[in-house]
Amino acid sequence: MTVLGYHDAAWANVQLDGRTAEDVEWEGDTKMSSQLASLVFVADRRCLNNEAAPATLLDWRSHGSTRVCRSTFAGETMACGEALESGLYLRSLLLSFLKGGVVKEAEAGAAIGIHLLTDCKSLFDHLHREGVPRPPSERRLALDLASIRQTLMIEAHHEWKRMYGVGSITPEKPCKAPIHWVPTDKQLADILTKHLNPAHWWDVVSSGVLHLPFVPKASFLEHDTEPVSMSHCMLCCSYMPCSTIDPCAFPPDTA
After folding, report:
1. How confident is the model over 119-148, as pLDDT tens digits?
2. Distance from C-alpha of 49 to C-alpha of 163, rounded to nearest angstrom
3. Which residues of 185-196 are buried (b: 16+ CB within 10 A; e: fewer)?
4. Among the ranges 27-36, 167-176, 181-190, 234-243, which has the highest mean pLDDT value?
5. What is the rounded average pLDDT of the residues 114-123?
6. Can you tell me the distance from the alpha carbon of 255 to that of 249, in angstroms, rounded to the nearest whole number?
7. Nearest to 245 by CA among 156, 113, 115
8. Which 8-state DSSP code applies to residue 192?
9. CB 3.0-4.6 Å disulfide test: which of 48, 133, 152, 240 passes with 129?
10. How many angstroms separate the CA atoms of 49 and 171, rounded?
């Protein structure tokens, strides 16, 4: 089982809510707000290995941002943060139902992984950049990116442990943030930010099956095969395992 978070943004395409007469006089008819959207699915991990697998839509959101975005990159970052927060909350909620008690974030991350899917290549590149990425000029955006990167790297270490167990992170055994680039036509959140024909979107969601554009790639380890997103394939980075995780495999409470 895995949690998938699709997210997208359309820059400066809607009006801000709560505009006063003074705002209208000052801004005119200029659209100042960006549309942000996210979709959260729970799916079989086979979808990470280029296989059609069962998936269920847990949550969707689409709204105009209350904060004015200075660029498409800023809007995509805000949408990414919202998708990540929704995924974290819904994962813990789901596991709490399965276990019958409160499941903390660290325990939830060890049981079920979270993968984000974006069609913004610059956001993907920034979050996967080695070392310390160059911060954007906007301070608030830099804080958003740092928070997302920190959370994703915690998730990445959970995935690494599921893949390799114990040992050290090496170039042959990389630990990459679980955010993947997908083409725009595979971005299911795209329709929630723009006027598009919804027929294909409804077909995908109502089918209860997802087929992600991940391609299998031979692992650096001879006995392994790892699924890699199209973006990871281009960058020659190996990635996630296709092993099944038991969401109920928790250690007994010690309290």
Report:
1. 999 899 889 887 666 777 778 888 899 899
2. 14
3. ebbbbbbbbeee
4. 181-190
5. 93
6. 18
7. 113
8. G
9. 133
10. 21
Distance, in Å, from the CA atom of 27 to the CA atom of 36, rounded to the nearest integer, reads: 21
Give the β-pairing of 53-64 and 214-218. unpaired
Pairing of strands 179-181, 113-118: parallel
SS3 state of residue 129: coil
Q: Are 210 and 47 in contact (CB under 8 A)?
A: yes
In a domain, 34, yes or no: yes
Cβ neighbours around 118 below 10 Å, total? 26
Torsion angle of alpha carbons 52, 161, 226, 42, nearest 10°?
10
Q: Which amino acid is at 148?
A: I
Cα distance between residue 177 and residue 145, in whole Å: 13
The boundaries of the domain holding residue 218 are 2-234
| Cα–Cα distance, 181 to 81 (Å, whole number) | 16
Question: CA–CA separation, 151 vs 87, rounded Å?
Answer: 12
- Structural domain total, the chain: 1
Domain containing residue 81: CATH number: 3.30.420.10
